[in-house]
Amino acid sequence: MEHEYDITLTVNGTAVSRRVPARQHLVDFLRDELELTGSHAGCEHGVCGACTLRVNGEIVRGCLMLAVQANGCRVDTIEGLSDSKELAALQKAFYERNALQCGFCTPGMLLAAQDLILKSNRPTREEIRNHISGNYCRCTGYEAIVDSIEEVVNGKS
Amino acid sequence: MGKAELPLHAPGTKVDRGYIGQSVPRPNAKRLLQGRGTYVDDLKLPRLAHVVFYRSPHAHAKIKRLEFSAALKLTGVIGVFSGKDVAEYCTPWVGVLAHLKGIKSPPQHAVAIDRACWQGEAVAAVVAETRARAEDALALIEVEWEELPAVIDMEDSLAGKKIIHNEFSDNICFRREHDTGGVDEAFAAADVVVEETFDFGRHTGVCLEMRSILADYNAAEHSLTVYHSTQAPHMMQDIFSRHLGIPEASVRVIARDVGGSFGIKVHVYPDEMATAALSVMLRRPVKFVADRLESFATDIHAREHKAKVRLACTKAGEILAFDLDDLTGIGPYSVYPRTSGIEGNQVVNLTGGPYKHQKYRAKLNVVFTNKNVTCQYRAVGHPIAVALTEGIVDKAAAKIGMDPAEFRRKNLIPDDAYPYTFPSGVKFEKLSHHKCLDLLLEKMQYEQIRLEQIQLRKKGIYRGIGLAAMIEVTNPSPAFYGVGGARISAQDGATLRLEPTGMVTVMCSVTEQGQGTEGIFAQIAASAVGVSLEKIKVITGDTGVTPYGGGTWASRGAGIGGEAVLLSGRALRANILEIASKILNVDKDTLDIESNTVVSKLTQEKKLLLEELGRVAYFRPDTLPMDFQAELTVTRHYTPRQYGFTFTNGIQASLVEVDTDTGFVKLLKHWCVEDSGTVINPMLVDEQLRGGVVQGIGAALFEECLYSPEGQLLNGNMADYLVPMSGEMPDIICAHVETPTMQSQLGAKGVGEAGTAGAPGAVMNAINDALAPLNARVTAMPFTPERILKALGRV
Question: Which of the residues B180, B429, B434, B793 has an alpha carbon 20 to 30 A from that of B231?
């Protein structure tokens, strides 16, 4: 039968302990167990990027990582990064430029964009397009998203 | 009443467009940006059960035996059900419409009984306490199959050697022939005749949120609440009511946040009907969320067409006639309730649409196949019609040696020719092809990029410029579905309520899936009532709350829903002024509303804050005259009826560079000039165009649902089915001509599908323009590197 493991991790700054099935994906754990539904499962095979999360400072696909693998890790989701205001500049730019329509890709897109902002110095428009090319958006055509990220990048001191 | 400057305040007051035409952000974007939206899969209810489906591995097979005993023994499994079990709770349906003469389709059940007709059709349902447990049980179901002959290719289907449905004598779902007469004579008299056969790959919507439904049956009151990722809550309310046997008023359909739809979520899906039926059967809430592999196998596909088109013209470049023969394969069933005949029907209606020729003949065959069903997907039929038209127009221009822009200018219907009846029978109220063409050529610096193209060719760089003019069906009247017997509302309604604090709540039957409908309704309502934007709260997507209406499809949200909001807003404004006149004891005609305040119409002097008016009307009506009742909730509806459809027009251009060694196409830039009437929010309109263009680029370059000769979907996952990602997409320049429709006060036409309609044709023409010096030409979408290299003779 199903194997289960005890895990302890820090989610959005709060310590969490649960017993989880070995096969449970991290995004399902966050959504079903912790009811953090801001991270979305769009394809469950690692392509669409809707489940993008931050684990120990690196962005990962929540559908390609098991919850047990997050034992001892620091996990940040859209909810935590919104409340901490870390994403505020990006969210403001996305809002003002309508860089989202249905919003299903948006949490993952913001985490991918923030990763670029933290790790690179003044990326070009092409570098922005490449960095988010693992995040599928069916609605916008991407241009407003690229514009928003570019605006935040250029405004970065 | 005047219509061009909108919205007008009451007659006699100053003309004020308010927020109309302003690029204000959408209020509902804020929650989505923080991951605090509510999509169906985010919902949990007490005693929630989860359903998954056992799907046919065969394209066509008889179900000899279903064995559930092992699955039923698994802990956490609530039940396993066959098609017959589910049919006791859900009646079958037939996807036909009376105005598509002769259309036929067999009855379809929520879960297949006896026979599966495509790979992916559900043949059993497992309900369990968790989705994971239900999926475990799927592996324990045993099915004994007898494979039946499958019809996969649509030309084989048309030939009819194997018949899919025994009750019919052929595989033809629907056929239509249209002829103005004089076509053969026009071709005989023409200086130039060009002909081409175009192939369009079957593709699908790939909404990022997969189809999702949570049905919650309340046995005590025989009522059903359905949380549904849908575009048409009232249509679904009617369908759940009739097929599950629950009174209409006891069915409530709620569409909260919807993660993209594009026409995918406006149809009746068997697995969703089964979910609702299982909720009734089990007397508890049941949730179904398709996984991505199920989405590829069962979300409606679209656009599998093979069409031969001929064009006759004079050597001076005057188009005389079009002749079309289109074949499309739709899967084993015509989809309920909109049918799978509409897409082909649109191709017949629209081919040649921008041009002024008078002779037109078209033949359409819509045939059954043993592949997933096809139905209406964003821009329904338009991408086919536009690519056929613009592809053959470019070929004709090349043959007579005329510049393609000049050839179009010569043949586009003149801007002063309206109203105009096109040879297919469709009527245009007012279009602006020439203004749009001129604006496009100016925006793209057409002549300059033509010169650059010539220079670069000398260096072995193959750039191409492609144009695609188009017309588009928007704001449909009941002529689209209602006249055919479908219980689909062409009318929409809006209720506006002034709250005691002076805020205005707007409840509209048009829904929101990210287009920004709620945002523009706020703009229209604020402008019509005279309040500031932050005073408006919009509610959509709940049959228990909003007026009755059609929902969001066929580019109707702004034009129809927006008009209902405008009319309702004006009525509320009038009622507010009536109350103000009683409070202030002055004639209401001397009053107006500006910036949340009742003012003197003449002097603009502030007289009464709306929050004070609300306080009096709701809490101190004893101070109002005895014979007066304040009415601060009003409802108005709107249905377009003067024209069958409010056509829009536009033109797109694509600039590409083809790598003749690899066959890769680099999209350098894309332009889109669109006339969608009154532009309510330029930013949102441009975003609709851009998103639509990129979806059309997907069709042109990447997307195709590939089936094996046995009917197996070969690339039904996101790794193998390519969609446009940010890295390959160009920047898209948008511009507008505004010709408001005179049928409404608002003047808005639809815009949500234009980008998708025109982009494939523009990209195709650009690629063929790039390849022209190499005497190569591609006509089968998507234009993959392999197809381009084959055209170049490199592989």
Answer: B429
